[in-house]
Amino acid sequence: MLHDNIHLPPRPPAPELSEARRPISKAEAETIAEQLYGKRGSAKRFETEKDDTFFLDCGENGQFVLKVAHPSESLDELDFQVALMRHVELRAPALPTPRIFGDLQGQFLPVVTTSGAERRVVRLISFIRGTPLDKTNSTAAQRVCVGELLAKLRNAMADFSHPADGRELAWDVTHLLKLSDMLDHVPNDERRAWVKTALDRFAEIKPGLNRCRRQVLHNDFNTSNLVVDHSNPQFVNGIIDFGDAVRTAIAVDVSTALMNQMPKQLDDTNRQDLFLEPRDVLRGYLRHADLEHEELLLIPFLAMGRLAVRALLTCWRAQLFPENRSYILRHTQAGWAHLRWFNNLSTNQISDLLTGRI
């Protein structure tokens, strides 16, 4: 967990982000699936940030996702994720979220000792067909659908609580200032200056963020975690990956979703407004959930803060795990252009980005 006096290195924000694991092979994943769940199939690895995740094709017996958690992940926090997914299924069964399956003994979080002598927690989750949104495009109407789903998911989580829901998560922008010691890992050029500006501006709005409404939220509604189908009238087939869920500010959850709808390619000659596409998401969101005026004012700063979180964590982790560098930095390049754009705006201009424009 993070602490106010954190200094990096040697104290990382979360061991699962900084400690290496011994990856398991697809053959071992297939063995785990058969022994724990009675599922015989062919495994294919997904690229992931911290765990071992496999697509498991069992033919006519179905398709699944097998997740073998990082050995440092807390059992309580994994139980929180499972309980949250089951709660959403109960409260809003129409929402396209994955279903989680118990093993042959009925356990949702069985523990195995891998061939690398690590004790690791396993989950089996339903596979949702479709294309990750970060691999395709979207229309304004489809982005409205994304916003509607985010609001409905918030509503379904509103009454949920768990002993581990207050965990301090490195990816929760609420704790951005605790990552400031990572600034040395950002290249020492204009990019470091952009991140420093984001940190300074976040410090100014932090008192307002502390007053904002909070609840358990997905906290990672990004385009990699939305599985879509252009032939589906609702557009989104699935909302996946509850690994960053946490009790945080409602405005933080919305800002993360909006930041992830910013264009991947930014042409300075014709792009004057990074929030053109994100506002479509916000319009859909406001059809089913409310935001207070102060929350609207803060969301652009929180989006900028999320860009800074991503820059700090990914630059740091790319140095720790150079073999996984391309995956870790896959969204960081676009983020530099976004941070530069924010850097060129005044504080008042940032405050006005959403108010009166939806």
TrEMBL record:
Keyword Thylakoid: no
First-tier enzyme category under EC: transferase
E.C. numbers: 2.7.1.81
MF-aspect GO terms: hydroxylysine kinase activity
Entry keyword set: Cytoplasm, Kinase, Transferase
Domain Aminoglycoside phosphotransferase: 51-274
Primary role: Catalyzes the GTP-dependent phosphorylation of 5-hydroxy-L-lysine.
Protein name: Hydroxylysine kinase
Lineage: Bacteria, Pseudomonadati, Pseudomonadota, Alphaproteobacteria, Hyphomicrobiales
